[in-house]
Description:
Number of strands: 15
CATH architecture of the largest domain: 3-Layer(aba) Sandwich
Largest sheet: 8 strands, antiparallel
Helix content: 10-25%
CATH class of the largest domain: Alpha Beta
CATH superfamily of the largest domain: S-adenosyl-l-methionine hydroxide adenosyltransferase, N-terminal
Order of helices and strands: EHEHEEEHEHEEEEEEEEHE
Structural class: alpha+beta
Radius of gyration: 20 Å
Shape: elongated
Amino acid sequence: MKPSGIVTMTTDFGTVDGYVGAVKGVIVSIYPKVALMDLTNDIPSYDIVVGTFHLGVAFSYYPKGTVHLAVVDPGVGSRRKPILVQTQNYFFVAPDNGLLSVVLEKDPMVATYELTEEKYFRGDMSSTFHGRDLFGPVAAHLARGVSPSKMGPKISQPKSLKEFEFQKKSSGWEGKVLFFDKFGNAFTNIHGPFPKKASFSHVELGERKIPLYRTYSEIPVGEPGALFGSAGYLEIALREDHFQNRFNISRGESVKLVVASF
């Protein structure tokens, strides 16, 4: 697969400090012709689950051969491995902490490499800023055409997060709340594809039975409703209000998608 020349960034670095700017500076210094794009740098600090979700639902909108740089890395400096994953359509540079869990459900892995070849790192590497000194440089070298096989040895399947696993039950599907977006909507880990004949009845969150709708605008103002959002995941919202605050819901709470029939 030929690199597209595009590198995206998904990080929890934020945009107030100079961290993102430093990573970009290193990448551009190595590959001045790079097309460098922010997928998002506003992942909540240390939140691997939210980083996994947003990378997983957005990566495929970029051209084939894009290098996706993902750094949400609370284990920086520990024994966690820095990895490069080549899928059928993309390259991913990330810590091996589960950040690629959703990606690999959608775009099958071709090979995974542990990043050990230091000539592709930045000199004088910090133990606390691998985004700048390790992951960023590797992403730049990949984008300019260096073969993944030169970055280090092949290793087995990357780590996967259990938070994204949900179960099929006799009454439907059971999962949990993953996180809340800026509007207070609860994003769950339940998603399709579902059997074509499945007819959904409602959603259960604790003792609450929540109706299903097709769009946010169909939910009565001030009332809760569930729907499958643009990313294909089951969401629970409070029309024009903050669902999380109103109902005091927490991450990890059990959610059931109940079917009327299969």
